[in-house]
Amino acid sequence: MPECWDGEHDIETPYGLLHVVIRGSPKGNRPAILTYHDVGLNHKLCFNTFFNFEDMQEITKHFVVCHVDAPGQQVGASQFPQGYQFPSMEQLAAMLPSVVQHFGFKYVIGIGVGAGAYVLAKFALIFPDLVEGLVLVNIDPNGKGWIDWAATKLSGLTSTLPDTVLSHLFSQEELVNNTELVQSYRQQIGNVVNQANLQLFWNMYNSRRDLDINRPGTVLNAKTLRCPVMLVVGDNAPAEDGVVSEGLWPGKLTEAFKYFLQGMGYMPSASMTRLARSRTASLTSASSVDGSRPQACTHSESSEGLGQVSHTMEVSC
After folding, report:
1. pLDDT by residue (tens digit) across 38-77?
2. Rg of the chain over all Cα atoms, to the nearest angstrom
3. Domains (ranges, CATH) in the chain?
4. Long-range Cβ contact pairs of 294-299 (< 8 A, separation 24 or more)
5. How much is the pTM?
6. Which of 150, 161, 195, 266: CA 20 to 30 A from 216?
7. How far is CA 67 from CA 35, 37, 100, in A?
8. What was the pLDDT predicted at 171?
């Protein structure tokens, strides 16, 4: 990989082009931080405020960052032609190895929100050797049941697409109490993201299947996430709630992410001053000062929805 790929790229994959933005340059053998946004957003709307947060600079100076936009969701994207088949959630995950290989990353630490968290979890299940760790924000590992599917269809008939998506991004309490923030997102979702392309992504996300992850030993040949995982949810949130981009809790999430990276053996000297966490696993790890891939040695904590993993850190923001 060249010394610097900083900027925007369109990457060929088996299921079409992916728009990718690289920030920074590779740091030795360290993994890249790869992000995937929620439905209704793109990498800018979802992650800009978080990654521009002052304390995040202590992290990003140690890692190259790779922002992935789902097909057709980036700023200025052309509308897909009539009859275009949007990739399934499994195919979205299967597009990511092309990105990893294109830039010569050995492995990545993924940060996904909502639909993006689902894609990255699927990616880690299919290509475990490419994923060193995952931060999953407000992931819903379950597919839609018939009642949910019917409710979504009805909502689509009675609400505009931006309003339908807002009910996914925010809890009812936030929709009522944070009207300025919600209105800002309503405008951005309506004006920044191509609406026809968004509808295709929204439909595919709502057609997703269960991630179907099981605890080892409970099912023959159980599928599990083999990497460390940090789960992030809102304090009083449903499965989908809150938006990383507006930084409602960037300080808390940044400190949790530092703690998570330290547990994997990175950034051992990073300051830990503001983290307020709930239900976290004890994380210890072999030190990896030179940036080589650490071998985590952890006290495991299981997460009911995601099966058993190397270790799971749960953070409520």
Report:
1. 999 999 999 998 999 999 999 999 999 999 999 999 999 9
2. 19
3. 7-316 (3.40.50.1820)
4. 294/264, 294/265, 294/266, 295/265, 296/228, 296/263, 296/264, 296/265, 298/228, 298/263
5. 0.82
6. 266
7. 5, 8, 12
8. 85
